[in-house]
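Quick start: what a row looks like.
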Amino acid sequence: MHELLERRRGARSMGLNVVQCHGCFDIVHPGHIRHLRQAKSHGDILLVSITGDSCYAKRGGAPLIPEDLRAENLAELDCVDWVYIDQHGTAEEVLKQVEPDVYIKGKEYEHNEDPRFLAERKAVEEAGGRVVFSSGDVIFSSTALIGTLERSADPYHARLKQLVSEPSLDGSQLNALISQFRGKQMLVVGESIVDVYVHCDQPEVASESPVMTLRPLRRVQYDGGAAIIARHAAALGARPVLLTGLPQSPEAEALRKRLMQEGVRVESVRTDVALAQKQRFLVGPQKVMKLNMLEPIVLDALRQDELVARAEELSRGMDACVIADFGNGLLSPTVVERLCGAVRGNVRTLSGDVSGRKSALLSFKGVDLLCPSEREARDALRCFEESVPAVAWRLMQETGCRNTMLTMGGDGLIAFEELPDARQVGEEYRSRVRGQHVPALSGYPVDPLGCGDALLAAATLTMCCGGSVLAAAMLGSLSAAVQAQRLGNIAVSAGDLRAALVRVMSAKLAVGTGGIGGGAGGLEGLLRGEASAAAPVEQASTAGLVGRGAGA
């Protein structure tokens, strides 16, 4: 503390404003990065105080990452100037001594009446400081966020090293889980889509007006929507049944035959619109235009009843069920809620996912796993300023779901699980969820189409086989990484998943010895950015790591 206060006095003498954030920062994920970047914009020097290990012991728990490593991880970020390990239960004491000019708390604290937070607020304001509620800008384009991450000391490799050291992510255990996929029975309910890639020659500008002219060379057709989820499950070794809406048409019959040839049994209710088709026009590997040929599906009350009854019947004896709402009308919010209630008692694992803003995300009641994107979750909840963990907790509260994976595009995903007694009333200050960040494992993606579907299928099967949420997130992310390396929607097989796992385990050896290029597979192509060893402790210290241990 003495060294920290000396630095504080020096900053004050130079007229520099000190901004302080406080928290556990057990796993530093992209949501934290946003929060810290926004905090730094409110002043000149950013101090991050973290809760020490001894405070966890007093509460009967323990952090995933020891305090020294948590401090070093934060010190590596270019937006963080000072890091202090606080051995008190709250930030009140350090706030009284440091007297920051600005104290930043997440937006979710704006109306928090917990006495511990009110004491922190009083300490800041009595010293003439300000309390600002901000969770950071929600950046749906990952460019700015990636820039911050890449300027830090190789956080992707550092996070990978942490992940592969987790007991539940032992390579042999993950391989055993993949082997257990075989024979698992899974019901998939949702709309089927046909994805068409139209490959064109180099565009020209039309003579009559400045519009792009494309000449199609060839068309390639892929199964999409719920159909590709079922195909992923079959390729991974499961025995899926697809319950979908299909018209009486040659295109629908062709889809049915293709799926049956790939090991997917198809059951359907009749719809009165053409099979949904999405056309993407490409020049080389680059998509230049997308054309959605979709007519909204409208089911009358009798067909809705039929869909729910068929789902309940088919789910009997199943191991898992996936309900996927692609926003085209087959699954209204009421139907989604009825489906969840109908199959919940028949399966071990019930998962759900949505696509787009017209989805029924909040109707997935009582599921085991939800896998929306961060944007889809924020849109559904109308939460645009809260922190990522706060959004996850709101979603889990609204739906009764105990696990959720918020996907973040090129920044990977954060897997949240509910902590014991999280729903206890009257403890507004306590943490409700535990988040684990899994970075994107495909360094140079070719095509993002279908990555979420690949993730959902693998993650659901993992949880169905008794795997942890973190194991499900890892195998799901690996499946998505395999998918991202391909052009078009192609099913990921168990062999593909094992090969990707071998590459990550090889990367574990490379990271553990300080190198990152050698070994079978290495890290090349797995993680974003150029390979470089994690910064040593001495470098982290010069970045502003202060206050190691109690009373420092």
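That is the whole record. The chain has two domains: 2-153, 167-512. Residues 137-154, 509-552 have pLDDT under 50 and may be disordered.
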